[in-house]
Amino acid sequence: MISTSEHTTSMELSFPSELGFEVIARDAVAAFARRMGLAADRVEDLKTALSEACINAIEHGNSLSPGTRVAVVCHCDAERLLVEVHDQGLQSYTPKGDPLSISDKLAGLGPLRGMGLMLIAQLTDESGYRSDGEAGNCFWLAYFRQPVVGCR
Fold it and tell me: Under CATH, which number does the domain 2-144 receive?
């Protein structure tokens, strides 16, 4: 669903919490970002960061549980594109401090998996997490932009 208020254009989508559906969300949000005037290189960054966030929601927030869903909500205004990834919170997110660097992981100081949050931080202007209480978890990605015709 796409809606437009006086200063913000929004899009929402929801998909089954199954690996593979993140590709559909990625492509839909990329099309929205392009329509809103986000630069091509930033759209590519967004696609990768969003895929990681959706996979985290599927694997961790929803614990790969059949019947759960992931929601992606996008808001675009003159200042930024904000993308929120919501899971149902079967498992809450607990920050464990700064993630290990790639070189530390390659040196065997940690598992090779688990680089998604580090990757997201590198590919976004801002990102973060908030608990939505009993509704679940929300991980958000922000991309700052110059005003363009697509967003009023």
Answer: 3.30.565.10
